[in-house]
What we know:
The protein is of the alpha+beta class. The protein is built from 14 helices and 20 strands. The strands form three sheets. Strands 3, 4, 5, 6, 11, 12, 13, 14, 15 and 16 form a ten-stranded mixed sheet that branches. Strands 1, 2, 7, 8, 9, 10, 17 and 18 form an eight-stranded mixed sheet that branches. Strands 19-20 form a two-stranded antiparallel ribbon. Flavin-adenine dinucleotide (FAD) binds next to α1, β8, α6 and β16.
Amino acid sequence: xxxxxAVITDIFVIGGGINGCGxxxxxxxxxxxxxxxxxxxxASGTSSASTKLFHGGxxxxxxxxxxxxxxxxxxxxxxxxxxxxxxxxxRFVLPYxxxxxxxxxxxxxxxxxxxxxxxxxxxxxxxxxLGLLAYDTLGGRRVLPATKVLNLATSPxxxxxxxxxxxxxxxxxxxxxxxxxxxxNARDAAQRGAQVMTxxxxxxxxxxDGLWRIETENLETGARGTHHARLLVNAGGxxxxxxxxxxxxxxxxxxxRLVRGSHIVTRRLFDHDKCYFLQGTxxxxxxxxxxxxxxxxxxxxxxEHRDPDTKPVCTPEERRYLLxxxxxxxxxxxxxxxxxxxxxxxRPLYDDGASSATAATRDYTLTMDDxxxxxxxxxxxxxxxxxxxxxxxxxxxxGAHFPDLPGxxxxxxxxxxxxxxxxxxxxxxxxxxxxxxxxxxxxxxxLIRAYGTDAGKMLGGAQAAPDLGEEFGATxxxxxxxxxxxxxxxxxxxxxIWRRSKLGLRLTGGEVARLExxxxxxxxSLPAAAE
Length: 531
Ligand SMILES: Cc1cc2nc3c(=O)[nH]c(=O)nc-3n(C[C@H](O)[C@H](O)[C@H](O)COP(=O)(O)OP(=O)(O)OC[C@H]3O[C@@H](n4cnc5c(N)ncnc54)[C@H](O)[C@@H]3O)c2cc1C
């Protein structure tokens, strides 16, 4: 049934990835009325498929992307302080050997070839040192430790690597649980008055008397809705071009370049908590990162991807590429049998005309268009790391249409559950265990890392594990699933085990089926996703 809605909101956001949710949160916090429509689950697009780093992007220095790197480096510590539950500092070990080469199209490579042709594309040690010095100083570190040199022959980080790697540089960046970041932004936006509608596809947006008339379809129920808004934000990620062309029917001058990136997850390959930054002989790099305690995450690839509606998957060639790349470094080679899971995402990069997918800019571009009679702001590119700054830039552009809009406020404003000090995780875990003595250490850690100071609210008055209801496996209980369904927009088992958590790595097929059946019953007693 068509539901005409007489309410006019200030902003209507298309897309519940990190950029849409970040903009919705910022706008709601400035007092604007906001609606957001996401056609799938929150973060079901690119924002759950990243490498999950808050990083400056050491590699981008070779492309002279100094603005992006500087902004991202500064942002790491700002974000860490706002969400110490889902983000934490990480040390990166960059083994050095003489065979490492630039991507030939990188501006730094071309410059070096002109002034030092005898280097023949090699990435010299002094240049890596210079890059790391810039990395250490550009962003004004306060919490994160500085770069140092490691002797791999004697340090524990050398044990997993082939003996030919004798020296490494160790530097800092941060980890973030990407899909939880999205959900917490959505929750915070909703707490500030935004209406977040998941499983809701925008099928058309038409300017009408200076406003947007937006038609939506609820993909669970088939119900159609009509909404009116003063300004439209197109944060469709890989679909940003499709939204412009097919929903808004605008002349899209700016283009989007879709570049797929895949990761493989293997059994745990090394017994320390640092990450490896591995350089190839073609200028590309991959990470090997300690993951979910018992696993190692390896990625990523850079492959052109034509159609946003083609589900990205890790192809056999990409699996082979990542295995071979890692095996150039690992003392104990890994193979197909070591892979327990793969995932892929599509980078919606701004098309700057770069020749290779690796070289295309990772910076973001915002375009505002009101030629149709009502304004639309389009978001191209961007990193998870720069989402908060991107939202601030979006608000600067949006501000032109809303006089007296309050200024920036999100810097330092904790996300739900993140209101404790950066070094306070151990104290949070101890506090939770004291309040709920039946929790094991790893269970309490998992809950604090997911919910922070909200973990106790989720557990409520439970005195013993059975008070939390059915247990689906790996400490996932009915109480937690209920929290995820009523507070965090989860609708299906997949939402719970792959985006609100990574328990999919641990649950058996039978346990997932039991969870799905329980959720189907619970769903029937809840309003549809968009209500
Ligand atoms: C392999 C890989 C690794 C990465 N690693 C990092 C990293 O380590 N650190 C970092 O900072 N960044 C990283 N990034 C970049 C980062 O993940 C992306 O820039 C970011 O997630 C993009 O977010 P988004 O909100 O623009 O897009 P998305 O997350 O894709 O969100 C767009 C949403 O819009 C929805 N949508 C589209 N059309 C409609 C419609 N008509 N109606 C309703 N909803 C619609 C989609 O369903 C989708 O959920 C990585 C990216 C990839 C692919």
